Amino acid sequence: MMSKLFRAVILGAPASGKGTISKRIVDKFGFDHISPGDILRMNVKNNTKLGKEAKVYIDQGKLVPDDLIIKCVTSRLQESHGKSWMLDGFPRTRVQAERLAKMHALDAVINLEVPHEVIIDRVKGRWLHLPSGRVYNIGFNEPKVPGKDDITGEELVQRDDDKPEIVAQRLQVYEEMMKPVLDFYYENNLVTNFKGKTTAEIWPKVEQFLVERTKALMAGRL
Ligand code: G5P
Ligand code: MG
């Protein structure tokens, strides 16, 4: 276990593989994985106040308002107190990035770059176990039993916002909103880009990067 804490964000377009890469980081490095998208989907499923408010935006492929999502992430980060963590899909606006910077100094910004045509093709085969956030894809990491989660045997679902027209909207919102976020992190020299069409291509590079970064952190060079 690392004695110093590592804090990272993982950014990338919808279905670029943030959740998939995050799972591998959790398995290898033991970081706490915080995915606001997963938290929102659980709230929608349980019909909470947050879920009801967020659903309207999620279903249209729009971003949930900053104050809602910042509140949600801030309280989840408190649960990670004393642990190394990675935030998946947050920040998505400059306001979110600035608020996060006031709370925590980051050690890395991992930016996944996957071509849009690959993404559009991928979402068609995505299946999800809602309570855990585990994702599957037909032809990539298929569940052992069709339609069932490997660990719990519970039902898998498809996301309402994975319909082609909503995915197109999400990609457009992403391109618009992320530029100022990436600029903010470039100004702070934090961004590392990982380009590729598959997780098989991207993961070894992310893994090597994190091995080096966590070593540097331990040696006090970060
Ligand atoms: P989310 O939940 O943050 P997105 O749109 O950022 O959603 P998403 O869709 O969850 O991102 P991902 O996590 O990047 O995608 O990708 P993934 O699930 O790991 O992989 C996608 C699929 O490809 C999976 O089926 C996987 O198995 C498969 N796959 C992976 N690698 C490969 C490969 O090599 N080959 C193949 N064939 N398949 C592969 O946000 C959702 C909504 O929540 C709100 C917004 O409304 C947003 O639209 N929201 C926020 N709003 C405001 N601010 C924020 N910070 C918000 N965060 C969430
Ligand atoms: Mg995800």
Which features would summarize this protein structure in a list?
binds P1-(5'-adenosyl)-P5-(5'-guanosyl) pentaphosphate, globular, Rossmann fold, 222 residues, 8 helices, binds magnesium ion, nucleoside triphosphate adenylate kinase activity, five-stranded parallel beta sheet, Adenylat_kinase_CS, alpha/beta, two-stranded antiparallel sheet
Task: Give your account of this protein's structure.
The protein has 222 residues and is of the alpha/beta class. The chain has a single domain, classed as Rossmann fold (3-Layer(aba) Sandwich). 49% of the residues lie in helices and 14% in strands. The protein contains eight helices and seven strands; from the N terminus they run E-H-E-H-H-H-E-H-E-H-E-E-H-E-H. Strands 2-3-1-4-7 form a five-stranded parallel β-sheet, sandwiched between helices. Strands 5-6 form a two-stranded antiparallel ribbon. The model has no long low-confidence stretch (mean pLDDT 94). Magnesium ion is lined by residues 18-19, 35, 37, 89.
Task: Please render the helix and strand layout as text.
Layout: E1 7-12, H1 18-29, E2 32-34, H2 36-45, H3 49-59, H4 66-79, E3 85-88, H5 94-103, E4 108-113, H6 116-123, E5 126-129, E6 134-137, H7 164-187, E7 191-195, H8 199-218
The protein binds P1-(5'-adenosyl)-P5-(5'-guanosyl) pentaphosphate (G5P) and magnesium ion (MG).
The site of P1-(5'-adenosyl)-P5-(5'-guanosyl) pentaphosphate has 36 residues, from helix 1, helix 2, helix 3, strand 6 and helix 8.
Keywords: GTP-binding, Kinase, Mitochondrion, Nucleotide-binding, Phosphoprotein, Transferase
Region (NMPbind): 35-64
Binding site for GTP: 126, 135-136, 199
